[in-house]
Design brief:
This protein is of the alpha/beta class. It is built from seven helices and six strands. α1 packs across α6 and α6 crosses α7. It is globular and about 55 Å long. About 45% of the residues are buried.
């Protein structure tokens, strides 16, 4: 498990540093834009963890470059070692006809402990950078029932982080920012558009074609399609077929 390539530093930091978890999807790109609008100097961190939708890392790179983050690091972790998820094993990704079919049950696309693993790496990176802010685009409304997207989980991790780090015990309190936590997906899109996010660069599909087109049928696609539809817009991401009803 080792860090991969990173982009060059774009400019000298002069504002508070923040480590931003950047998957390449709609939510993380919006969270990054909000962090920048709030005055933070962002250091992006992404993960190649054996996910079937690794195309998202190309999107993360494009978003990081367009956003001119201070640095973009990709960390290599192989969660296929454990499996247990449709994203890291041969389990089929569920497909639906409509977003109305989605439930709040924890689906097979849940990756065991993924956000805990990702936040731990982000915490280590933040401590090295002497940054006291981490930004993550979790959402407690339009999401797929993942337990590690809930506000109580984030607050618990934040408490742990301040007990477990040198900076924390020396009085430099870490804050985990969740700017999308109370937004619907449609509100997230609206906020991102107001900040100039180019959603054509982002990819959210759990089961894309080898050439990168989204399936249009998985939970993530359907929630994304509905969000754009509720804003009276077409999703600019490429799809394999005409998207199903949202």
């Amino acid at each position: 498990m080792s860090p991969s390539h990173s982009s060059v530093t774009h400019r000298q930091a002069s504002s508070p540093k923040a480590v931003v978890l950047l998957s390449g999807g709609l939510d993380s790109a919006t969270a990054l834009a909000i962090a920048q609008s709030d005055g933070y100097e962002p250091y992006a961190i992404s993960f190649r963890y054996g996910q079937r939708h690794a195309i998202e890392l190309e999107a993360a790179g494009a978003v990081a470059e367009t956003s001119r983050v201070m640095r973009h690091v990709i960390v290599e972790i192989d969660l296929r070692t454990f499996g247990g998820s449709a994203l890291t094993s041969d389990i089929a990704v569920p497909k639906h006809d409509s977003a109305s079919e989605l439930t709040q049950e924890i689906p097979v696309t849940y990756v065991p402990a993924r956000n805990t693993i990702f936040l731990s790496y982000a915490l280590a990176y933040a401590e090295v950078l002497e940054a006291d802010n981490i930004v993550i685009g979790v959402n407690a409304l339009d999401y797929s029932g993942y337990p590690d997207c809930r506000p109580e989980y984030i607050r618990a991790f934040e408490t742990m982080a301040n007990l477990a780090t040198k900076r924390g015990v020396e009085g430099n309190q870490l804050s985990i920012h969740t700017p999308l936590i109370d937004l619907t997906k449609a509100e997230t899109v609206r906020r991102g558009l107001a900040l100039g996010v180019d959603y054509s660069q982002t990819r959210s599909c759990y089961d894309p074609a080898a050439t990168g087109e989204a399936c249009g049928h998985c939970d993530s696609c359907l929630l994304r399609l509905r969000a754009f539809e509720e804003n009276g817009l077409a999703d600019p991401a490429p799809y394999q077929l005409e998207p199903r009803n949202t």
